[in-house]
Design brief:
Length: 106
């Protein structure tokens, strides 16, 4: 089982994303104050539908939930699923410590 924290400072939400592999699916739960992201909680994500941006189960679900294009949660969910599926090394994830976007000039 994996757990990620997503700090969406632009919308001021913090989300806890957790997931576990169950056969050929990744079961994802999200603890969130965001009504749109709540629609994504307890998603059963097919392992083979997380490999690309186009025809990606998570991106499709985020679109249906009305997530904005700059929402960080779908990206976190994809990374969690890829890690749980074995497509992304847990050692690399642990070593990296996180993903961030820094707005250097605005």
């Amino acid at each position: 089982m994996a757990e990620f924290t997503v700090k969406s400072t632009i919308c001021d939400f913090v989300h806890k994303v957790s997931g576990v592999k169950d056969g050929k699916m990744i079961i994802v739960d999200i603890d969130t104050p965001c009504e749109k992201i709540k629609k994504l909680s307890h998603m059963e994500v097919p392992m083979m539908e997380i490999l690309d941006i186009k025809n990606n189960y998570v991106i499709d679900q985020a679109h249906e939930a009305g997530c904005s294009a700059n929402c960080l949660v779908p990206c976190a969910v994809i990374n969690l699923c890829r890690m749980e599926a074995g497509f992304l090394a847990k050692s690399l994830v642990k070593k990296s410590g996180g993903i961030s976007i820094e707005f250097n000039e605005v």
